Amino acid sequence: MATAPYVDFSPFGEGDFNGWNKQSNGWELITDREDDGNYFVRFPEGWEGNVLGPLLDKTVTGFKPGSSYRFSVDFRTIPGDDLFRTDVTLDVIGVAQLADRTLTRFDWDTLSLDFTATATEHRLMIIARDRLAENSEDVNEPGTLGRARDMSLDFIRVYELSEHTERFDQYQDIHLLPREVFNADHMSIGLPDSAPGSIAIHPVLPEEGKANLKKVLCLAHNGGNIFPAQTTHLELVGTYHAVAFNWAGIGQQASAKAFNEAGEEVATQSISPQPGETTNAHVELVARRETLIKRVELTCGNRTFIDSIRLLTETPAATASHLRQAADQFGCDDWNGWSKTAAAIDLQLESADGLYRIAPRHGVEQTDTGILLEKTVSGLTAGNNYRFSVKARSQAGSQASVQLGISDVFSEAPTLLGEEWQDVERIFTARQASHTFSIEAPGGANAKAQAFLVENAWLSTTNSIVEDFNDITPTPIIRPGNSQQTAHVTISLGNDQQGQVHIHAVGPIDGMTEGKNVCINDGSIAEQQTVRFDLAYECVGVKFSLTSMLANQPGQLVTFFAADGETIGSHPVTERNSWVNFSAAGKRIKAFEVTVVAKRRASLDFLTLILN
Predict the structure, then answer these.
(1) Number of structural domains, the chain?
(2) How many CB atoms lie within 10 A of CB 292?
């Protein structure tokens, strides 16, 4: 049974289809059980045939109209010959449909469709088609065996896309003894009858230069070591796939355990500090595939602190680098694998708010330019999209810039930092199983840059799509009244427009264009030209480069639209070469238009569609 924020959770446990109905192409589907106990759905051994449409459907209730949801299913296949392939799609009938995805992976791969509910119930459908790999035609000849016989699916989830993070800043100071419970927004916090000591919510020392205090959940509040160890219970209001938080000041053996609604332990993490030392830990409790987390128990033997607790409907970031070890352990691999270069000689770890960050030594205002920190990460999947992000800010009274680098991937322009913490990110497609990531201070030879601070660095999978236009052949020309469709976008030029649009290769501009791109107003014919891009998905954000524009031209802009045609924002283009990065709170982008003026050709490249 699904519990908020889920409206459907179907792991097929004990062979239960959980209300999913077999459709015309799914009558033969059965459940099976893996050696580790996981149940999944597949076609029977020896089944001969092909699929050309719906497999399963279900009418799901409990939606809130106007709220955003995600419909996700795990798929896998057995790699086979190159003659046939199986394409799958997800459909929320009458609302949204995921573009066809070809199954290629032997391990479980999650496909997701984001949509906005228009009613309290929606019919959801899973569709598959066997196709010829050569020309994408359906495999529908009698006696022809498709590839769907090698397909499996599992772990259907439908849940609300909302941020569920328990922060403690908004609460009054609280002191809890055993048997007392505090009801927070997303959980109840308390100690069992037999627990020693107390717990509390109270402020910690402010960050240097800041006036405001930050509140934390303090375990074993009475201070010093405590025996026997104290166990705090967190009873969650909803059920979640994962729980993540930073835990500071651990001086004795500690543990975090997660339990499902039946009281079964589904995840655990232990922390063992060195004798006589304290450590900080990033805790990620991830439930087994077939269940969800309802309760968390935290056990510690000394006074410790938790800042905020993230409640997640998905697996946390594949690779997380929290710069969290104690500053006096510098030189003992307390940088989580990040290496300093010679240009970063003045960087060190310092503590603030119970967390640790990289910052320049006291009194250092400038640093050498170039690569400061770098780290090689393995375990990536070539062709998959990832997000590399860093939380950074400049020093007080300065404006620094930071640049994120990824080996073998084109470099983007630097980001200007302010004095408040901000997330700087790159979305990219992995080209191999291993990439080297860098945090850089941009500048020329022998230059100095304003020093900046870094708190967290993350590498995570992302439900994003990067269209680089390089696979479009040959090099199509779009004239007024015509369009060109790719897997992710339809590019069109209205009947009322002049000139043409040409998709072809142009000379690269470092960090902006590479290979083929969309050449707007090709030939510099029109006084003004507006090109429309209709997206295959409703996106929370859109990013792309625009180059070779004329600077500071009135009327030169990008306009963004929702699915119903509503204009949800615009972005004036004032520089010759720039990145357009647009999102609108509570709105999803379905199309945009680019307008260029003054008989000027412009290029659009690296169209990134951010689906969540």
Answers:
(1) 4
(2) 23
